Task: structure prediction
Amino acid sequence: MVKTPINVFIRARPTVNYASKNIIMDETNNKISINIPKQEEKGYVNHQQENWGFQFDKVLQNASQEVIFDICGKNIVSSLLDGYSGTILAYGQTGAGKTFTMFGSPSDYKYRGIIPRVISLLFQEIQSRYDQSIVVRVSYLEIYNELMGDLLGLALNPEANVNLAIQEDERGSVNVKGLMRRICNNEEEAFSMLFEGETNRTISEHKMNKTSTRSHCIFTIYLEMRSRVESSEKVIFSKLNLVDLAGSERTKKTGSEGQTLIEAQFINKSLSFLEQVVVALSEKQREHIPYRQSKLTNLLKDSIGGNCKTTMIANIWPESNHLEETISTLKFASRMMKVSNEATINVHLDPQVLLKKYEKEIRELKQELAMHDTLANRGRINYEPYPTELQYQQQVLAKKFLEGEIEDLEFESLRQVKELFFQFKNIYKNLAKDIKIGNYIDVEKKASKEYVKFFFI
Result:
């Protein structure tokens, strides 16, 4: 078990209207300072806060997609293949660049986001691990207005949005009952699943974002790993949650109405519950953590305060008219840094493989007992050599064992063991004789050629 704090990285959206008078980003020391002067019209007695200071694991301004992935994603992929579950979480106001960070631009390969890069790196690493057998599965879940939908199951089941429920297994891990997990044999199949889910995702337009995602989406990669060289009953399970949260909104700015307004209310409510969970986890004396207040917090139970290695990317929009939202995002990110997870490797034993192993052990123990009884009762031992027919049977058995047709030899008596060793000895002698004769013939041929060459050429 490894106790790891949640890593928090800040990514600023590039903008020509950067609020340089209000925001100072120190990428060297990973600090952000914000200043909002007091409003003079409110009088001399004004307790409005003017300055805020924040410290994070990394502050990134004008960083490329490749740099973001190298800093935020590569280590988690390596940990995933070592057996640790992980989560990469994108948080921030609407329009700050969360979906671009996670998915990138579909029209330009250069600007692909964290999820496509994770898929590519994962399958490259799997191909290099010859000593492991790894099965990859993926799922794609959407939480829209507190209803969970399977984005990979809509084509097969139109009611995939209503039959899903959260449950915990016997090990305390959170699962979604009815969520489809599809096997991916290669990178192309995984990208196909991702594209299929994206086409089913809920998106709409408002004043601040033309393609605003109206739901929280979790693309999950599951690994099932077995060693090809060690005991095969040992199975390691790990998963990676790639979470693109819907952005928090101020409805006065977005101008949301009707259905868009209802969506915004559900989004802000679920994000508020998420913040309550983070606040509760950051308080050491707090016993109850309100995970069950929303579907989102319940699903992220493993990721926040659980057994995952978690990274949060807080996206901000550093313009003067978004200062309040930026401060709110940075405050939440600061609280997240106080939360620690206890990452563990999920090792399980395959019951079917264990059953076969135990059956083999029982057979071997029975053979040992039979031979022990024979030795204990000398009157039952037969010292006579095997008849010709039985000798031939043992010879065939020995050849099949040496050629790999059978893996185990079952012994009925010490007499049979001696006969098998005798047959192994005969096979070895015949093989050595054949090799010697073959070498002699090769030497004779070579000497004959040299003789002809010397006298006649």
Summary: The CA atoms of residues 216 and 233 lie 37 Å apart. Residues 450-457 have pLDDT under 50 and may be disordered. The longest helix spans residues 414-456. DSSP finds twelve helices and 19 strands in the chain.
